[in-house]
Amino acid sequence: MSSIGTRMGLVAAVPALAIGLLVIVIDDGGTPAQAASACRAPASLAGRTDSLVPTAGFDVEQMKNAEAIMKAASNLGLPVAAQLLGVQAAIGESSLRVIDRGDGAGPDSRGLFQQRDNGAWGSYSDRMDPMISATNFFKALQRVQGWETLEPSRAINRVQRNADPNHYTKFRTQATGLVKALGGENAIGVDPSGTCPTAGNTVVGDLEGNWVHPLPGSTLTSGYGPRPTPAGTINLGNFHYGVDLSTPGTPGTIVAVTDMKIVKTRETDGAYGTGVTGQTTDGKLTIAMFHMEAGSVQVKEGDTVAAGTPLGTEGATGNVTGRHLHMEFFAGTPSNPSASAHPTIDPTPILKEKGIL
């Protein structure tokens, strides 16, 4: 049983946006959306376009174009809600590719957003440039009165003016997944529907600085360091950036290895699968736990939990060959532990010193 093998190149999950409200609706019939809880967007993109790998069903070219869209929204001071709309629109128009052709309805349409040659979207080179075309999309969106409260597909339709106002609805989940993938640990609270749920602020248990085994009843199945890429997993490099633990028989319960504040929860998120990232209360370590069973996470972002608090169930989601817990340590409290700029450290000496291994 093996898990993701490298940090370099794994998308900083995912970048960029000004602080703002994410507004979402749950019906697609045109009912005004309800403002969700404040959803802070990252101040800058966490990923590096030269180290992206395919994720969330998109290749590197598509991800670079999505990054350009997100940066354009951020540069205009727009919230994560706008970024989601921009990526959603471009998926629906071009599958996030700079297309040098139109269609029957618009033979002069070009680029990520299939913008027409009518003078409203700039020159041919403007329409073929991801940043410029995205910027023009968002400037047009800003002219749509109340865009924040419109159902997402209908907000996009007010800009694109295509025949079907519901055309973009089916691309919402993909857009949300991609924004999360590019936004990293700072893409807080955006779930697959695009909703920003209320962050948790609960303190669970007594914070006494204890350390416990993160997967009781398990054994170490793969250590930190060089190793061949396991058969059945995506080749992300011949280095294991964490430790793997596995229980025999039925899946085990993954618990907080020490007192920590939960800074990220994931649900079937690309190579990582379902999991939790926490930062120790003394700020010395960030600890990420991956590949949990889908839907099993029991804590919320913002919660502070004591050692031994159940976090989720051992699973096999993400880039794995079998059920286990993959755990990574980062020094300090990096804003985005998934970014290659923040290398992992070997958990083994720490776990041995605490009597866990």
Keywords:
7 helices, alpha+beta, two-stranded antiparallel ribbon, elongated, 19% strand, nine-stranded mixed β-sheet, 357 residues
Describe it:
The protein is α+β, with helices and mostly antiparallel strands and 357 residues long. The protein contains seven helices and 15 strands. The strands form four sheets. Strands 3, 4, 7, 9, 10, 11, 12, 14 and 15 form a nine-stranded mixed beta sheet that branches. It has a two-stranded antiparallel sheet with strand order 1-2. The model is unreliable at 5-38 and 40-44 (pLDDT under 50).
User: In whole angstroms, how far apart are the ends?
Assistant: 19 Å
Major sheet description: 9 strands, mixed
- Please give the radius of gyration in angstroms: 21 Å
What sort of overall outline do the alpha carbons produce when their principal axes are compared? elongated
Low-confidence stretches: 5-38, 40-44
- Give the rounded overall mean pLDDT: 79
Structural class: alpha+beta
Strand content: 15-25%
- Described by its quaternary structure, the protein is single chain
Explain the layout of strands and helices:
Elements lengths: L19 E5 L9 E6 L20 H16 L4 H15 L29 H4 L2 H13 L9 H9 L11 H12 L19 E2 L14 E4 L2 E2 L12 E2 L2 E4 L6 E3 L4 E10 L3 E8 L4 E8 L11 E2 L4 E4 L11 E7 L12 E2 L2 H6 L4
Parallel strand pairs: 3-12
Antiparallel strand pairs: 1-2, 4-7, 5-6, 7-14, 8-13, 9-10, 9-12, 10-11, 11-14, 14-15
